[in-house]
Description:
The structure holds 2 protein chains of 2 kinds. Chain A is of the alpha+beta class. Chain A has helices spanning 4-8, 28-37, 51-54, 92-97, 99-104, 106-114, 118-121, 126-132, 140-145, 243-249, 259-269, 280-300; strands at residues 22-23, 42-45, 64-67, 77-79, 83-87, 149-154, 157-162, 167-169, 172-173, 180-187, 193-200, 211-219, 225-233, 240-241. In chain A, 32% of the residues lie in helices and 24% in strands. A 5-stranded antiparallel sheet of chain A has the order 4-5-10-6-7, covered by helices on one side. A 4-stranded antiparallel sheet of chain A has the order 11-12-13-14, sandwiched between helices. In chain A, a hairpin with a 5-residue loop joins β12 (211-219) and β13. In chain A, α10 (243-249) runs antiparallel to α11 and α11 runs antiparallel to α12 (280-300). Chain A starts with a helix and ends with a helix. Chain B is built from 5 helices and 5 strands, in the order ββαβββαααα. Chain B has a 5-stranded mixed sheet with strand order 2-1-5-3-4, with helices on both faces. In chain B, α2 (85-92) packs across α5. Chain B folds into 2 domains: 2-76, Ubiquitin-like (UB roll) (Roll), CATH 3.10.20; 85-153, DNA polymerase, domain 1, CATH 1.10.150. Chain A binds chain B through residues 1-2, 4-5, 7-8, 11, 14-19, 21-22, 24, 45, 47-49, 52-53, 56-57, 59-60, 62, 65, 67, 69, 93, 116-120, 122-123, 204-206, and chain B through 1-4, 15, 17-19, 21, 40-43, 45, 48, 52-57, 59-62, 64-65, 67-69, 108, 111, 126-127, 129-131.
Amino acid sequence: MKRQSKNVKNKPEISGKDSDKYFRPESKEELIKILEKHDGELTVIAGGTDLLVANYKNLYKIEKWLDLNWLDSFKEIKFFDDKVEIGSMVTHQRLAKLDQIKEHFPVIQEAAIDVGSPQIRSRGTIGGNIVTSSPAGDLLPPLLVYDAKLKIISKDGEKIVDANEFFTGPKQNVLESGELVEKIILPLEDNESRGAWVKIGKRKALVISSISLALNLVFNDNKEIMDAKFCVGSAAPVPLRIEKAEQNLKNKKIKKINIEEVAQIVSDEISPIDDIRGTADYRRKVAFNITKSALQEVINQ
Amino acid sequence: MKIRLTVNGEKREVDVKPETRLLDLIRDDLGLTGTKEGCGKGECGACTVIMNNKVVASCLVLAPQADGADIKTIEGLGGKDKLHPLQQSFIEKGAVQCGFCIPGMIMSSKKLLDENINPTDEDIKRGLSGNICRCTGYVKIIDAVKDAAHKIKSGGEENV
C-alpha cells in the first residue's frame, strides 16, 4: 500500500455532512480514542472485500465506519531475531510478492497468491482474512502451521492470543466488541523446514476453497521431523489442525513417512459438511488425495 | 462529506456519503460511465480501475477511502482521437463482443503490461483472472494484450 495518508497530511481533515459517520484514525492513539468514544457503534472496515459483499445493497444501514486503511503502522512488516510481526493491514498482494515471506513462510505466500484475484489481493488484508474467520479463509491454515499468535488491542489494553485458539466457529472468533487485531506474530525457525499448500476449488481464480491444506515440517540436524504442523481448511467449522497426523509424522525421517496412512488419518479426522462447494463425501476423498500430493511435494523438495 | 482525489490527471472535489462506493462516485458523480457495474461483489471485474497504481474493484472501495488517491479509469487511457495501444489492439484483434467487460479487461491489462511488458499467455491469464467475459471471448482478448505489448515495445505508448 502506498502511504496514502502522507499525501493528504497537509489537507484539511474530512469534514462536512456525515463526516461523523466515518472515522479514519492515522495513529494508534487516535484509534483508541475513537474506540473509547464510540464503543459498540462501529463497523470496522479493513480491505472491504468481504464486508462490502456481505452488506451489498445495505451499506447505508451501517451507522458508523471505522476505516483501518489510514493506519500506516498497521501496514508494517517487522523482522526481529526470533520473530516477524506482520501488521493486520498488510494486503495479500504484498504477502504474495515479498521475497522475505517466500523465504521464511512459503506456505503463507503460496496461499496469498491463491486468494481471489488481482483486484481482491490488492485490497484484502491478512487481518481481514483472520477476523472474517471463514473456515475457507485461505491464509488461516498457513498461519496455524507456522504457530501464529495474534496481538489484539482495545481501549482497555492489549493481549496475545494463539491463532489456533482464535477461531470458534464459522465466521466466529474470540474477538469481543471494540477489540481489533493489530498484528500477527510469527516465530522465525532456525532449523530446516519444508512446507506445502494445496487449494482445491472449481476454478483457479476468484474461488472460495472447497478444501485446502497447509503443511509445515521442521527437521533437526539428524534430518528427523522434530515438529510437524498440519491444517485443513473448509473441512470443519474452523481451520482444523490434524494432531493425529502431526504425531504420526514426528520423529520420522522423511523417507519413512507413510503417505497412505497419514492421508487416511486426515480423511478420518476432518468433519466436513455438504454445501454448494462440495459434498462431505467429496471432501473426505479429496482430503485423502491432497494429503498424499502435499506429502509427496514435501518429500521431493 | 467532501473528498478530493485525482481522476485521470484532473483534480476533483466530490461530496459523498460514507457508504458511497468508488464505483458510484466515478459513474454518478463524475459521469465517467466507461467503468461498469456487473456483479457489485468483486467477482466480475467490470468495475476495475487503477487506484494508487493498483487494480481494484471499484465496487469494493468506499469513496472516502479514495480521498487523496490517484485514480485512472478507461477514459484516462485514450479516446476516439487517440486510442491507447491496448484499445487499438482490442479493436484490431476482434476482442470486443458485447463490450461490457472490456473497460475492466483493459484496465487490468494496462496494469499487467505496466509491470511486465513481455507476458506469457499464463501471465495474461493470471493478470486477467479477476475479469470475466460472458461472451467468452478470452482467446482474442489474450491475443489483443500480446499485440498491445508488441505495439508498446515498439514505441506506441508515448503520452500515456
